[in-house]
Amino acid sequence: MKKSACKFILFVFLSLFAAVYAFAVPSGTYSALDYFSEAEQLRNRNDFLGATELYREALELNPKYGDAWYSLALCCYNLKNYDLALEYAGNAEKYSKNMDSVRNLQGMSLVCLGRLDEAEKIFSSILETSPNNIDARFGLAELDLLDGKISSAEFLYSEALKRDGTNRKALLSLALVSAEMGKTESAANYISQALESHSGSSEVHYLAAYLAAKSGNLREAELRARSAIQIQTDFDDAYALLSSILYTQGRYDEVLDICLFRIGRNRNLSDAWYLMGLSQKKKGDVEGALKSFETGLSLNPQDEVMRACFEQTVADNIPVEDSRRQGWASFHISKAREYAAKFDGPGERFEYQKALSVAPLDLSVRQNFADLLSREGLYELYLKQLDFISANSVPVVTQEDNVRRNENSPEVKKTAVQIRNEDSAEALKNLMAGNLSERWNVDPFYLDKTRWNIGLYFQKKNVRLIHADLEEIAVRAAGDIFSAVPSTSVDVLTEPIGGYSDAFRHARSSGRDYFIIISPEESERSFGLKAYIYSARTGTKTTEIDIYRTGNDCMARTLRRFRRSVLDILPIRGKIVSATNGTLLVDLGRSDGITAGSKFDVVRRGSIRTKDRGPGITYDEKNILGTFTAVTVNEELCSGEYKKRGFYDVMNAGDEVVLVELSENSGSSESVASSARPAADSSGEPVVQNSESNEDASSVKEALKIQPRESELVGLIRNII
After folding, report:
1. Is 718 a domain residue?
2. pTM reported for the whole predicted model
3. What range does the domain containing 94 cover?
4. Potential cystine with 335: which of 148, 351, 377, 616 (Cβ 3.0-4.6 Å)?
5. Which of the listed residues 423, 442, 461 is the one where a domain comes to its end?
6. Spans in the chain with pLDDT lower than 50
7. What's the CA angle centered on 600, arms 537 and 608, to 5 degrees?
C-alpha cells in the first residue's frame, strides 16, 4: 500500500514538473500559429513593437505564412516604416488568400511614400473587382485630401459608411472631415455614433477629445482625453493631447507634471520638452525654459518651431553680452556653411543673419557675413561690417604665427585677419572717395528708407497636436524676417485677433499701408503658410499667398518665400535726399535693382496711396511734379537728371519718386539687387530680378506645381487603426 502511494506521489510530482518545465521553456513547443496568436493579441492592444518580434518568430518557423507577413506589414505601417510595410506586403501577396487587404495595405504604404499615382491604380483596380470594398475607398479618400478635394473625400467616406454603418474609421474620418469643413453638428453626430458603437476604444475617445478641443469645449475635451488614458494607460498621444488642452486652459503646473511623466517613460520625446519649456516660460522660469528647449533641440535639431521659440525667448530675456549666445548661434553657422558648399548665396546670407540675430557680438560670424557681402559685390555694406568689427575687436595675446609683433615687445599687435580687414577697408575707402555719398556728404545708412508700413496678425486655434502656440511663434518669425528689409516697417501683434474686423480696425488706426492675416499649418514633415493681404486704407483684399514646403528647413524656406512674395507686390519707391541745379540725389541704388537709365515719376510728398483693389499704388496726375532719370548709381544712392512738369519748379527734398521703367541693363551684372528689397512697379507687378529669384531648380518646381499636402487632418485620419 505504501509502495503504491509513493508511486502515485512520484507520478504526480513528475507530471507537475513536466508541466512547469513546458511553460518555462516554450521555445521547443511553440508553433508558428502559437506565436502568431500571441502577436495578434499584442497588435490588438497597439503594442506593435512586441507584436513585430513574435511575427518574426512565427516566420522563422514558417517563411510561407501569408497572414504573418500581412500582420507584420500592418505593424510596420503603424510604426511608420512604410518601405518595410510595402516589402512585407509584397511577401504576403505571394502566400495570402486575402488579396484585397494586402493590396490595400500596399496602396496605403505607397501613399505615405508619396507614390500617389501607383497607389491610385491599386485602389481603383480593387474597386473594379470588389465594388463594395471599404478600405479602397479610404485610400482614394486620403488621396483626395492630399489634393485638397475635401468634399470628394467626404463623399467617399460616406459611401464607405453606407456599406458598414458602424465602421470605426468611416465614422471617425467623417467626424474629422466635417469639423474641418465647419459642419460642427455633423461632426458631433458622427463622433457620438462612434462613441456609442465603440465605447471601449481609446482611439475613439482620443479623437472625441480632439474635436471637442477644436470646437472650444475644453471641459469635454479634458474628460474624453482622460477616458482614453483610462482605457489605454500607455497611450502617449492621449497624454500629449491632454497636456495641450491643459496648456490652453493655463494650468501650467499640471502640464509640467504630465510632461515630466512622459519624459520619465521616454526621454527622447522632444515634443514633451517643448511643451514643458513653454509652460516654464509662462510661469516666468526663463532659465528652466531655455534648458528644456535646449534638451529638446539636442534630441530633434530639425524642429524649426522649437528653435524659433527658443531664439525668441533668448531675444526677449537674455542680454546681448551673454557668452552663451555664441553657442546658441552655432546651428545657424553650420547651416550657412552647408549653403555655402552648395553655392546658395541667399540661403547662406539668411543663416548668417539668423546667427547674428542670436549672437550680434560674435565677430567671427560677422566676419563671415562681411566676406559674403564682399563676394556679392555689396562693398559699402561690407565696409560697414569691417568698421563694426574693428570697433569691437579686443586684442588677444597669443603665440600663434599669424600675428604681427613688435620685435622689442611680446605684446601682440594685429592678427592676420585684422591686417586684411584694415587693408581692405583702406582700399575700399580710396575707391569710394568719389562716390555719391562722399560728393553729396550723405551717409546712406543713416537715411530713413521706410516706405511701407505693414501689420501682421493671426487667429489662434484652440488646440495644436504638434506645437502649441504655433501661430504666435510663426507670426513673430515672419515679422523677424523683414528686419533686414530697410524699406518696410513690420508691426507684429503678438496677441490673437478675433477676426478680420479686429485686424482692419487695428491696422487702420495704426496708419498701416497693408495688413496681413497669417495662418500657419504643419505636419511632421511639412510647413505651410496662408497669408491674406488687405489694404489698411479700404479693407479690401489685395492678394493672398499660399506657400507649402516639405523636408528639412521647410519652415525657413516657407518664410523666405513669404517675404519674397510680399516684396514682389510692393512698388519701388524712393525719396529725394537733395537737389541742386536740376540734379537729384535719391535714396535708391543697385541694391534696389536700379541701374543707369531707369525712369521715375517725381510725386508730391504724401500723395501716394495704395490702390482700392489689388496690389500697386496710385496718385493723381496733378501731383506729378516731373520725371527723374538715374545717371549715376551706387549701392544705396543714385543721382540723375530731373525734368520739371509745368512752368514752376515746386519740387522739394522729401518728395518721392516712383519707378516707371527700368533700363535695359536691369538684368546685367551692374545690378546687385538684394532679396530684401521691394521689386514691383507702380501696378504691383514684379520687375526686378533679385538674388533670391534664382532658386535652385527643385525649389522652383516645388513652388509651381500643385503638391499633395500633408496636414494635421491627413495625419489624424492616417493614424486611425
Report:
1. no
2. 0.86
3. 23-131
4. 351
5. 442
6. 1-2, 5, 8-27, 668-671, 694-706
7. 15
